[in-house]
Amino acid sequence: MSTESIRPLIGISCGDLNGIGLELIIKTVSNNKLLELCTPIIFASNKAINFYRKSIPDSNFNFQQIKDFTRINPKQVNVFNCWEEEVAITPGQLTPEGGKYAILSLTAAVEALKAGHIQGLVTAPIHKKNTQGDNFPFTGHTPYLKEAFDAKEVVMMMVASNMRVALLTEHVPVQEIGPHITKAAIVSKLKLIEASLKQDFGIDRPKIAVLGLNPHAGDEGLIGAEEENIIKPAIKEYKQQNNAIVQGPFSADAFFARGYHERFDAVLAMYHDQGLIPFKSLSHGEGVNFTAGLSAVRTSPDHGTAFDIAGKNKGDESSFISAIFTCIDIIRQRTAYRENRANPMKKLTNRLLANAVDEKIEE
Predict the structure, then answer these.
(1) Distances in whole angstroms, Cα of residue 14 to Cα of each of 38, 102, 156
(2) Beta strand 120-123 with 155-160: parallel, antiparallel or unpaired?
């Protein structure tokens, strides 16, 4: 069977019940062409699905309720009922119920992914205010998935057709970013990014750019010392030890303004807004959040719960559709990668490519 013919089972967690997640899920799976590419399994309840379906007059899809995975219909949307009770849904409101059932959906979907009942997971947005607590002590999906899959390291990587932006630090307050900028952290993230570009995106000889932390990438130490003392030595060490194509540190504003992001296969940003502001500005609303480093494939749209438009049929499902397509593509690519690694001729090709010239990009 070719990798193109694989039609994976894609789990979809519902996100905050009062957010935009279920509306976007319904709009996405209403496109029957999606069933030609995958079998969607929504982790929620039929009651929650029906609540939001009423607010989307042009939605036209049928779904099958299931309580175990032996009943999956590969030619239809499946709803795995994670709960049976009536739940108060109040679109646009931040409530304890919205967070509670978001986590119930997420944990059920992750257990299914770990057990092999589904091949990939697309997560709808949750809100940290009503999910983080004793039962879910995480700042978001990424740290939770890292622990759930016992991953040594993961990278939050934003993916679009014209760029990939990975983050060294994620949801860290700005005043606390500095101590997280270490040589070891940069080397570790670069290793994971390079491995993901090869395994998940089929790039045999990736080119990676690294941004500086300070304005003008520190101006050779005049505006901060992190570039000279930490970032440059980390890049040099990684290149020497791995024969890799890594360049930087680049001044973040000039890097994106000059379109350098399109010359590299991935960009490592030092902190959240440094990477996500240009990404969301340049990805044309179709960006995807991908967790690199997991043994399983997880993606999500690149936006939040959007309480301000929840329940009003105003949500744009473009990013959610992209998240599902990206999940499918990475599943197929990982399959092809494993097959190619087993082929000795492919290994020879990789060795030849390792001698490719490191193209220097000057600022």
Answers:
(1) 18, 6, 20
(2) unpaired
Query: Which pLDDT score, from 0 to 100, does residue 3 have?
Result: 45
- Measured distance CA(41)–CA(333) in Å, rounded: 21
Cis (ω within 30 of 0) for the bond into 249? yes
Could you give the maximum distance between any two Cα atoms of the chain, in Å?
Answer: 64
Give the CA-trace dihedral at 177, 183, 187, 193, to 10 degrees.
20
DSSP-based three-state secondary structure for 34:
helix
Average pLDDT, the chain: 91
Sign of CA dihedral 249, 251, 255, 258: negative
**254, 186 Cβ separation under 8 angstroms:** no
Chain Cα centroid distance, residue 35: 22
Whole-angstrom distance, CA of residue 107 vs CA of residue 178: 33
Residue indicated by tokens 């490519």: 353
Tens of pLDDT, residues 165-208: 999 999 899 999 999 999 999 999 999 999 999 999 999 999 99
In Å, how far are 43, 120, 335 from 332, measured between CA atoms? 23, 11, 5
Taking only the tens place, the pLDDT of each residue in 226-280 is: 999 999 999 999 999 999 999 999 999 999 999 999 999 999 999 999 999 999 9
Q: Which of 282, 287, 284 is nearest to 323 (CA)?
A: 287
Q: Angle CA(133)–CA(137)–CA(142) in degrees, nearest 5?
A: 130
User: Is beta strand 288-292 parallel, antiparallel or unpaired with respect to 155-160?
Assistant: antiparallel
291 within 8 A of 259, measured Cβ to Cβ:
no
The reply to whether the predicted model has a pTM over 0.85 is: yes
